[in-house]
Amino acid sequence: MKKIFFCVLFFICFHSLSAQIINADERLDEYLPKLNNKNVALVCNHTSVVKDKHLINLLVENKINLSLVFTPEHGLTGLSEAGELVGDSSLNIDGKKIKVVSLYGSNKKPSQQQMRGIDIVVFDIQDVGCRFYTYISTLEYVMLACIENNVPLLVLDRPNPNNYVDGPVLQKEYKSFVGMQSIPVCYGLTIGEYATMINEEHWVDKERKCDLQIVRLLNYERDMEVSLPIPPSPNLRTDKAIRNYPTLCFFEGTSLSVGRGTNTPFEIVGYKPKRSKAIKWKQIDITEKKIDVSLIITIYREYNGEKKFFNNFFDKLAGNSTFRKAIVNHKTEAEIRKSWQKDIENYNSIRGKYLLY
Fold first, then answer.
1. What is the pTM of this model?
2. Most buried of 56, 192, 234, 236, CB within 10 angstroms?
3. What is the pLDDT of residues 197-226, one digit of tens each?
């Protein structure tokens, strides 16, 4: 009996381990040989950890010539707040000084001077699958710099915790750093798939393509529930906040609070309802894989604050003005979703060509 129990227990443990997602940066045998004897630039942040070791340390330990580090919004440590400009710095790893260049400071695209002497760029950052989360904007600018300087790009793929397609598709006149391409808010791709799509569709450069290589995830399936071990940015601290983000980020384009400065950012919404002078804090837990349009409509109708509900940032986040106007004109969720449908179908016909998993 004990023997049978041990065998069953072993099978359960083995199955659990075999089904565990293996991030691309854990697949050293797959990508380290591509970096040998080359001057390497690494695009990374605090999420770029291989088990218990940062990828910077791992590359140096493996005698890879790491010439330069680029970092996105929130910086290398992931502690800088949203919108806070980050300066350049340097690291000293085992006596080797490595310059750290911010791509959320004086420039968002690596300059020709910064790319000089680089043989290959490696990108390893955890995304959350939303158009207005700026890590994919940094990815695109890095791809463009690689095209312009004839440098290959190696993307180490990671899972998408919001792996579904939903939301309004951005109109080109609303392009900004929180929305570079005409895609839905939730675009339903891993960062490697996204890089492949915008490269092959010539969305980065109309004439040229990036010399792009993707190191794939192992044991990953699209419908998996993904729990991120490291918060990808200062205010996305929990799985709940990450799930809520595609919906609650819209409130960043209003006079409401999403809990920044509290212990539960992106888990609550604070506002003054009608016939009330006190701020109401509403707990939010979005479990369905879609943007909760009805929540935005409901809070808009309940709101009675001193300031206007919407500010100019809302349209930038939505990628159009029609979403805001539909809410103001008392359109239902069904009517709003119907207005998105054709654009989403067109997007899905493109997206389907680039699914790796």
1. 0.93
2. 192
3. 999 999 999 999 999 999 999 999 999 999
